[in-house]
Amino acid sequence: MKPDSYYTPDGDIAYLRVRDPEGAVSSREEPWGLRDYDERGELVGIEVWAASERLPREVVDALPRLEGRGLTFERQPA
Fold first, then answer.
1. What residue ranges do the domains of the chain occupy?
2. How is the beta sheet containing 25-30 ordered, strand by strand?
């Protein structure tokens, strides 16, 4: 089971859960990451890209680590 909030060092991504979602979750992309909303339109979490540059070090250090998640792969020509 994945923690509610976590940091992936491989992708430098932090996910911060705000509340449990009601139904399906959709995401809205921002320049800094994603905002997740449930089907009622309530904010349920945020995903922060380049988290070590955007969040205070204390926040990143306090989050549980998920290793091997958030890797970036280059697209290969077909």
1. 6-61
2. 6-8, 13-17, 43-49, 33-38, 25-30
